[in-house]
Each structure stands twice: as C-alpha cells, then as structure tokens.
Amino acid sequence: MPQCGTEKHVSAPPSYTGPFVAVVVDLDGTILDDNHRVSDVTKATLYEVASCGVHIIIATGRPREGVAAIEQELNSYFRCNSRVPGRATSLAEVKGFHLVASNGARIYNTTGELISAESIDNSVVRAIYERVTESNINANSEDSMLVSVHQTGAWWVNNVLPEEWLRRKYGTLPEVRQNLSDFPTDGVGKICLRSFNEGTLRTFQKELDTKYEHYITTVMTSDHCLDIMPKGVSKASALRMVGEILNFEPHRDAIAFGDSLNDRDMLESVAKGCIMKNGKNELKELLPHVEVVGCNEEDGVAHKLREVFLLS
C-alpha cells in the first residue's frame, strides 16, 4: 500500500493499490459540523485522499441546489491546492467529486453535469400532494406536514422557513408555493415530508408504502422527516451506477460514512461502512457489525480516513 501521508498533496502514481478506490461521504451529521460547515481538517483530508487517486463521492438527501455552496467551497479548495508547487498540477489529476443528490435520484459528475435522473410517476406525485393537502386541512400545527420537492434545477417548499437558517444551512433559498396544486408533478426526484409529530409521519409512511409499493421507496431520515423517492432509488443504487462509470465495485472497493437511515443501504453495500458516533441509534442497532467512528463535530470522517490511508 502506498504511503500517501509521506508526501502531502502529491498525486499517487497510476499503480495505486490502496485499500479502497472510492470514498463515499454523507453531508449532514457526517462531514458537516453542527454549523453546516466542512472543517479545514476535513477539506485537507479529502484533498489528500483524492491526491492518492481515490474517487470522492458525496451522497446526500439534499437537492443539488442545497449543496451548491459546499460544492463551490470544496472545488475552490481543490483548485487552490492543485496550483501549489509540488502538489497536483491540475484538476485533471485531482478531479473533484461526484455528487449523489436527493438520496440517489440525481447523480452529477465531477464537472457538475447531470448523468442520471430518476423521477416519481406523475400520477403518484399528484396523489401524494392531494393526500397531504387533505391531511393538513384537519391537522393542528404540530401534526401538519411541510412539503419539500426536488426537481433537476429546482427546489420547492410549501411553507416559509427562516431565510437566515436556510442560507446558513443550504446556501440558497427554495421556491415557495403554499398551495400544493401549484407544485410540479413532472420530473420530481424526491418528496420530503416534515412534521413535528413523528407518529403522523410514520402513519403516513405505512399508508404510502401500502398504496404505492410498486412506485416509491420511503425512508424516515429523522424523527421529523420522511423522504419519498422513485422505487428502487437509494444512495446504494446510485453508488452502483457511479461504480460502473468509474470502473469500481462498491462492495469490494469503497468505504462509506453516514449517520442516518437513508445511509443504511449504502453502508451495507460497500466494502467498509462507518457510522458516525452522533448517528441515529436505530441505525447502529440495525447494523451492529458496522464500525462506529468519531462524531461529526470532531472530524470523525477525517480521522478515520487518515488512519485507513496512512496519512500523517
């Protein structure tokens, strides 16, 4: 195994034979700290790993629009380091990262080009809107559901959220339409339902899974968030597609990090999965064989990568 840490930021030779050829990282609760930022330690570590010839893949439930600020920050860091004498000389050598967005419904390559898009059937999207509208009419404020919808190039919500919080977390603002009849039904990659009442969401999840089992995949990403994607779409399915493009097999060649239930299948599908210390207890109970690493606030991903890739 090459000692990548012996000469920082220098691209590995084509004969690189390290433990993994792909690193897959979730964002929120994983490489992002609690202030929704990527630390300098994590940025430097991702760059060093990429300099070893390893593919970096970000896999998130966010739409691409909600990743743009982080994408720009990381790419800027990679470019700046690539121009330093003695380090990789161009982004052709350190290529940035692939992005799996909306829990696998959209995949973008290192240049930001959309290379895969999966969408929920229009009629199912419309039926979900109608059912949510019906439910919200009879609900109090705690039981009502906020709807967030991801399309390619667009992000919609049905309620006004604090602008400062949105900009701090996502770096952008979604389109707001209070009436779901004004929401798009074409090209919807993911629907996210949020409610203060976990029971409301879990009941709704069971109903949707029963009615539309052949059309959608659902996952509770937190106690207050239900994600709905096209049938068979997940971070794991997207990772397999990226592997086909980049010529690696996730179950043999990839290490992945995550903290929530939308990371479960991804963590099970790779050669080595890692759950963050701050990850959901339910995830740890479902995957007792998966290693628990440091928490997001303490650069847990970076420390594990430095250990695995023998970085100084």
Automatic annotation (TrEMBL):
Single annotated GO MF: phosphatase activity
Annotated GO CC locations: cytoplasm; paraflagellar rod
UniProt-listed InterPro entries: HAD-like_sf (IPR036412), HAD-SF_hydro_IIB (IPR006379), HAD_sf (IPR023214)
UniProt keyword annotation of Acyltransferase present: no
Cofactor or coenzyme needed: Mg(2+)
This protein's UniProt keywords: Hydrolase, Magnesium, Metal-binding
Source species, domain of life: Eukaryota
Record-linked Pfam families: Hydrolase_3
Family indicated by similarity: Belongs to the HAD-like hydrolase superfamily. Cof family.
The protein's name: Haloacid dehalogenase hydrolase, putative
Organism: Trypanosoma brucei brucei (strain 927/4 GUTat10.1)
